[in-house]
Structure formats: C-alpha cells, structure tokens
Amino acid sequence: MNKHNLPDAKGHYGKFGGKYVIETLMPALQELQTLYEEAKEDPKFKEDLSYYLKHYVGRPTALYFAERLTKHLGGAKIYLKREDLTHTGAHKINNTIGSALLTQRMGKKRVIAETGAGQHGVATATAASLFGLECDVFMGEEDMKRQSLNVFKMRLLGANVIPVTSGTRTLKDATSEAIRNWITTVETTHYIIGSVVGPHPYPMIVRDFQKIIGEESTQQIMEMESRLPDTCVACVGGGSNSMGLFYPFLENEEVKLVGVEAAGLGVDTDKHGASLTKGSPGVLHGMMSYLLHDDGGQVTEAHSISAGLDYPGVGCEHSYLRDSGRATYATITDAEALEGFKLLCSKEGIIPALESSHAIAHVAKLAPKMKKDEIILVCLSGRGDKDVNQIADKMGVSL
Amino acid sequence: MSRIEKRLASLNGNKALVAFYTAGDPDLSASKDIFSVIEKNGADIIEIGVPFSDPLADGPTIQASSHRSLLKGTTLKKIIELVIDIRKTSELPIILMTSFNPVFVYGQKEFVNDAVKAGVDGVIIPDLPPEEAEEFLGLAEGLDMIFLLAPTSTPARVQQVGKISKGFIYYISLTGTTGTKEALSVGLEEKVKEIKNTVSLPVLVGFGVSGPEQAKQAAQISDGVIIGSAIVKLIEAHSDPAERDRKLAGFLAGIKKAINP
C-alpha cells in the first residue's frame, strides 16, 4: 500500500492541511478540485503542460555533478538539480504554467498571486502574459524594496503589482491580502498560490506541478550513477521546491530527505523563519500546519535574509513528513546562507538565490561527514540575480 | 432553548439587531462600557470580536481595529474575563466572533468550558466551515455554533449548513470581506429567500450593512441585520468616551428605527 497517498478525500495530511476558509470560498475550492482532477486525467491537458514545460520553460533542467564543490568539501558527491536554469530562473514557473492552463480551462480571465522574493510573482506574470490573462500580484511593501528588480520585471510583463502595507509588509501579509482579494473576486478570478500552502486542494496541486523536479532527478541520477541518492536536500519556506523534489522519493525509504529552514539571526532569537523547527501546529492561510505563533494564537513575525523564506507558516505536507519522521528539517542562519552563496559562486561559477543558498550551506555541513561514494542531491531552486543588489549592500559594496 | 433562540423568538416578527465590535479597542475597560451603551440602545444580540493577527475575512476597518486591540495586549483569555464581568449585570445574548487559531491554541475543549461558564451563548468562527468543524461541534455543548452562508453557497451547502447551524444563519450579503459598501449586492433578496425556503432557522444579514437605509432594505427580506464595521469606525473616530457613547447611541437608535419602523 502506498502510505504516502495523501491528502485524504477531505484534504488532510494526517492532522494537517484541510480547508480553513470562509464559506464564500468553499464552493470555489470544491470546483477547483473537481476541475483539477478532470484535467490531470485529460491527455490534452497533460500534452499541453509538457509542451510548455519543454519548449517554453526549458525542461528537463540539468542535473549537474558539482565536482569542484565536492572536492572542496571532501565528502559525498554533490549533484545540483538546476531549477535556476528554467525560464524566469526559478522552479516557480513549473506551477504557474500548470495553474494558468487550469485557469484557461475554468474560463476565467484574471489571475492573482502573492509573492515574497518576487520569483512567484514574476513566474505568474510570465504565465499570464503567455496565456493572455489579466494579472494582479500582491507584494509586501518591505519586499518590494528588497526585490525592486522583480517588481520592475512584473510590470514589464504587464502585471499590476499591488503594495501590501498591512502587518509586517512581507509574504505573510501579501498572502492574506491575496486571499481577501480572492474572497471578493472569486467568481471571475483564479488565485495562483506560489507554494504548497493554503486550503486544499492547493497544497496538492502545487506539489503535483512541482514533483517534476523529483521525477526528472530520479531518472537523471539513475542514468549518471545507476542508483538513487543517499540524501536529498532543499530549502523550505512555504516548501514548494522541497516538496517537488521529495515527493517522488517518499516511497524510497532509504533516501534521506532533508529540508532546510531559515534560522535568520538564530533559532533561539525571535528573528527566524523556522516553523517546523521552532513552531507548533496552528491555522493560518486556510490550513493546519506548523506555525510561528504566540501562546494566544497570534501569528508572530518571521525573519530571513531571503524574502522567499520569510514566512511564519509552512506547507502542511511538510508538517506531516516532519511528524512521521520521513523527512527531517535543519536550519541555516542568514550568515551561513551568505557563506553558502559565496561558496557556490567561487567553486562552481553559479550564483544561487539566497533561498537556495540555505540548501547549499547545509550541504557544506553535511557532505564532509559523509563517505566519498555517497550521493547528495540538492535542489538549486533559483538563481541569484535578484539578490545581487542586496548582497552587495551586505558586503558594503555600492553598485 | 438557548438565550439566542429565546431572544430571537421573543421578537414576534420584529427584526433583530445584532451589533459587532472588537474587544480591546480602544481597550478592555472601554469594551465593558461600549457593551452597555450598545445594550441600552436596542441591540438584541452582541457579537464581541476576538482580535487576530491575520483576519482573512475582514476588510481594512476591522483589520485595523484588531491590530490596535492586539497592541493593547488583548487575548482570548482576557475577553472571556470581560464576559464574566459583563454577565454580572447583563442578560443579553453574547456571541464571540473569532478566527480559529486563537481557539485552537487555547484548546477547543478548554475554550468551550470557559466560554460557557463565563456566559457566552454562541460562537462564529468564519474560518471553521462545516468540513473542519466536526471536532469543535462535538465539544461545543452549551454554545450555539453559528455558521455562515454566502452568495456563492450552492443549494447543497445551504442544506448542510442549515442542518448544523444553531441559533441563526449568518448570511454574508456580499462576495467580499467585512466593511461598508454603498449599496447592497444584487441578488440578495433571491438568495435569502432560497435559504429561508430550505432552512428553519432565522436568517440574519451581515457584511456590508453600514447605515439605516441598507439596514432597512436588508431587514425587509430577512430576520434581522448584523452591523460591524460601521460601529467599529464610530468607536475609532471618537476618542472622547462621552462623545463616542452619544454617537453610538444615536447611530444604533437610527438603525433600530429603520429596521422596525
């Protein structure tokens, strides 16, 4: 029996997941689920999706043996799954192309999205432009400052970027505002959520659109090494690239799965984004999952150097995997992530996103402790162009 | 019969006025005074809002009010204490309106025990739809759990909610968040009729009912109205308590007259 055949019929992953939303949205969620279940069995939909993934997104992405990094760390062999090489430069596009095709199928003409680092916003704006859909992206004012390049890109692609000024002005509030807008426009608008979060069926749909990362990786590593990796590593904010990588490996219990959360200034400070490591179960944005909140149930601020990991919640399936022990979750601080960033730049000629730099930094800790014939497969979820200004700033360099 | 059911039954065809305000805005001691002003000026039921950091169903007015209240240190525990205090002098039905997370973190069972003991009569938890409410419903003895219906609700959902809701049905008058709107949404009358044909509970209309004219129209086709953001705005606008109470009294009297001419 496939014990990872989740969610159940009600959208639960064990005690996590579900649909904790106001009545107004419940019919739309049901409709989306029905439509998605039809679409994924429809040969035409599958054909369209693989066409765009191949010819537009540029899949399959490379699996690259990082030889110099491996030598430098002196332990396990390190393979990078190069999601940074996709069109728009991050894995987010896998989901937005699929979701835009679903939007067309629904006959809706407008999409909305939330974005933190701006990668999902750019990927949604891109898909909207490609399929001729109207697009509004909600983005925290604070993130708009941190990621001004992506704001400009979204506008070039024809999207409206709507600044969110409530709360912490980051991804959490952008998500809340996108949901509020969806409550108001649900009859004409499809909400494209950027991660494996939100009410059912979103965590499932986004995972399914991202699992291509793990499926390709499986095939590629079999071709290159004739065996599966010992450990898979990926960063976890909401958790979409990690869920996409992990999912096809869930049944192979011998493959260790390690998610890397943002420790920010340290998990023992109040400035981090490590919900699985330091949080407890709670309900935010329509799902039950691990959450950073106080003893009165008020959601607390997350912090990370990387806007994409700056989120107090996490995908509900990760919560399930954490509690079941199938995956483990490590943390990397802002400072360590910067070191990971520099390491990949200097050893492999690849500028990684700050999000992905967390995964690299963890690999730098892990690989030396492993044997030379062991294999780590790490998801390089995005490229770092968007972060270059911020990093220059941190390094005291003015551009 | 619960206190809510009794009150609604006693109206004899008159329309109900349910008033909402956020506990702890501007502070908890004001919340006690505001309760008594609202009670004296014709509310049949009072909904006390529990602030939440991320209230997804609320528009800017109640979001800001929640935020102010949280800055003052308001917690669900303190709100239950407020109800204990209010119950010393009032028999008016009290509903707590809250997001689910504060209740979940409090402990569902402990919350029901403490709320019932304090004299809370009902709860509205907008982000706990029937699909997720099973556990809470199993524990909620002594509390009327009021469910919501929306313009988007299908006939099957109207039936489902009609079966499990207690006290009344909260009909969300518009496809949107809480807050004032200039006109009531089209199709309101039809939808309320559809619900009343299916469900035996009273149907009260809220979200976007902001002034006497809208209240009058909404009351004509339903069993009563729920006013929230307009009250919260009035409280926000008047920092002087005497002035606030006077304005609030005038506003509620106007609504009361409009719905029961």
Descriptors:
heterodimer, A: 399 residues, alpha/beta, Rossmann fold, 2 domains, four-stranded parallel beta sheet, globular, B: 261 residues, TIM Barrel, 13% strand
What does this structure look like?
The complex is a heterodimer of chains A (399) and B (261). Chain A has 399 residues and is α/β, with parallel strands linked by helices. Chain A has two domains: 12-53 and 92-206, Rossmann fold; 60-89 and 211-394, Rossmann fold, CATH 3.40.50.1100. Chain A is built from 16 helices and 14 strands. In chain A, the strands form four sheets. Chain A has a six-stranded mixed beta sheet, sandwiched between helices. In chain A, strand 1 and strand 2 (16-17) form a beta hairpin. The longest helix of chain A is centred in the N-terminal third of the chain and has 16 residues, at 26-41. The mean pLDDT of chain A is 96. In chain B, strand 4, helix 7 and strand 5 (144-145) form a beta-alpha-beta unit. With 261 residues, chain B is an alpha/beta fold. Chain B has a domain at 15-146 and 208-253: Alpha-Beta Barrel (TIM Barrel), CATH 3.20.20.70. Chain B has a nine-stranded parallel beta sheet. Chain B is globular. In chain B, helix 2 (28-40) packs across helix 4, helix 4 packs parallel to helix 6 and helix 11 (229-237) runs antiparallel to helix 12 (241-259). The longest helix of chain B has 19 residues, at 241-259. The mean pLDDT of chain B is 96. Helices cover 48% and strands 13% of the residues of chain B.
